[in-house]
Amino acid sequence: MRESLVAAAFQLFVERGYEQTTVDDIVALAGVGRRSFFRYFPSKEDVVFPDHEGCLARMTAFLDESGPDHEPVERVCDAARLVLRMYAENPAFSVQRYRLTRKVPGLRTYELSVVWRYERALAEYLRGRFSNRPDGTLRADVAAAAVVAAHNNGLRSWLRSDGLGDASAEVDHALAHVQRVLGPEPASGGPARRSGADGGGARDGDEDDDDVVVVVSRRGAPLWRVVQEIETTLGRDPA
Fold first, then answer.
1. What pTM was estimated for this model as a whole?
2. Which residues lie below 8 Å from residue 211, measured CB to CB, with a gap of 6+?
3. Per-domain residue ranges for the chain?
4. Could you say which of 1.10.510.10, 1.10.357.10, 3.40.50.720, 1.20.120.340 is the CATH number of the domain covering 51-183+207-239?
5. Which of 39, 144, 184, 202 could anchor a disulfide with 123, C-beta 3.0 to 4.6 Å?
6. Mind listing the pLDDT tens digit for each residue in 16-70?
């Protein structure tokens, strides 16, 4: 019944438009009552994102199962790949949803709230792993935001190709950049490379030349605005 309600909803969204489709329209097409709809979905918005609650639960369980030997940033990158798998399992639906959220501002806002929940789950795990480090909370929050931004950049690139490209390759490429910048620090025996501005200190000529972009945003800015600023700085289309 859950799948029937989703199928009926998206059929009507395509035919009539999202705003013009009511819950009554959806249940009528699916052949069920309103009570059945709300048993599965708290609102019309939720029927657009029927798989995220289960995916968030799986991702959280994956992080909870982590051991001390797991490298933290690599672990959250692997957790992000669980979200990608959800999208890649049904490319046609994922592309259809992507197109719909681009057209309906309210759905875009709802989607950003879902993304924020993923980010908070990643940050909570990283805060635990970085609790004994200087600026551990800051490091955790920055790494979680970077992983989400990288995952979403690769995901949107795949969605814009109508799901015809290699989703894993797109996301792996983006996450690899995060791991290079925020992954394990160099072993002792030489000065650790610092990511970011350090008052004009010179960089060793033998070090990697990966660019590090620092974006300054006002306190309290919504996540979608911060991500948009990062993508704009990187010269990527934030849409």
1. 0.73
2. none
3. 1-44, 51-183+207-239
4. 1.10.357.10
5. 144
6. 999 999 999 999 999 998 999 999 999 999 999 998 999 999 999 999 999 999 9
